[in-house]
Amino acid sequence: MAEIVYMPKLSDTMTEGVVAEWHKKVGDEVSSGELLAEIETDKATMEFESFYDGTLLYIGVEKGQAAPVNAILAIIGKKGENVEEILAEAKKAEVKEEEKEEKKEEKTTTPTPEPVKSVASTPSTPVVNQQGTDKAQPQVISDNDRVFASPLARKMANERGIDLTTVVGTGENGRIVKRDIEHYRPYVGGTIRKRGFVGTETYTDEPISQMRKTIARRLSESKFTAPHFYLTISIDMDNAIEFRKQMNSVEGVKISFNDLVIKASALALREHPAVNSAWLGDVIRRNEHIHIGVAVAVEEGLLVPVVRFADGKDLPEIGAEVKEFAKKAKNKKLQPSDWEGNTFTISNLGMFGIEEFTAIINPPDSCIMAVGGIQQVPVVKNDKIVSGNIMKVTLSCDHRVVDGVLGAEFLNTFKDYMENPVKMLMI
Questions:
Q1: What are the chain's domains?
Q2: If 149 and its partner were Cys, which of 41, 153, 221, 382 is the partner (CB 3.0–4.6 Å)?
């Protein structure tokens, strides 16, 4: 009997996936445990193995295409089985399940009465939704019309920020139903050009990657639910510059200023454990372990691999681990175990010439520290104006967990370690 393979949920935040590569083609034999495809999630590209033995009869999502979790990815069965019948049965089951959900939704929701639309106002044949060709045009509805949609479809569209006037309905009489929202893709009809007196106005609509969607959702939730406040401190980096120079003179050792920041943060967290906490709604979790998330920029956005038990690792260990994370991130080879479990996060833009900035807290942490570059500026030492090397860091705090004094005490301890880095070798 044929088995339907559905788009898997490969991370806790994944809502849809993109097929990065198929390792089998229709007609190939497939064994359980054999690599079937590579799926791009919101955070990484992960290998997906088959759970079944048989022949690959059907591919539902081509390479480069996106599909929601639980969409039909493939069918595996005996050679010669009727794929059309299998798909038809799956479609019937989906419609029944959808009808159940809509009836359940209608019991708890009192929809606004919909105006009756004439037959002429809806297409006689359902239009293939945005999953088909990019030539499919969105519905055109006048400002005086209401959109003909089920209550469940309305709710899903509202949650996903979808404008119903741009969705093509495939239900009865053109009604927008659940599947239309699940398979919705923004219409991209090509570049629009408009000539003016000076030049040509153009724009390109680029599809949003899975990673960028997750970044937008998580950071929006953080910014608008966690009451942020910010503390900035200046650090004299003269000793740190000399210390790093001496460390890197040892054969086989190569550390960066970011490695010093990670180690100093971890040691400061050990002394101020209340900063190493998370707001969980009903409780505040005080983490006794110290896992430092390190923001790494990739083409699609930002990943935050985690240096675990950073307070117990020496500087060369931290440096080697961060370099490996950066390499894996750029190649999309990070696994969930690499980015989960952070208790504090560091975002460093100093290498890009940024002097100072504020960062949005990375849930579930209560703090994130933004690190600027080292600037050569005039400073006062021993009542004389001399050239100094200053680095500014800004701590973003969740006021539900960390108060101003606590954040200030943490920053001063961090400053002490950075200005006297030899102390990091004594603990």
A1: 3-81 (2.40.50.100), 115-207 (4.10.320.10), 211-425 (3.30.559.10)
A2: 153
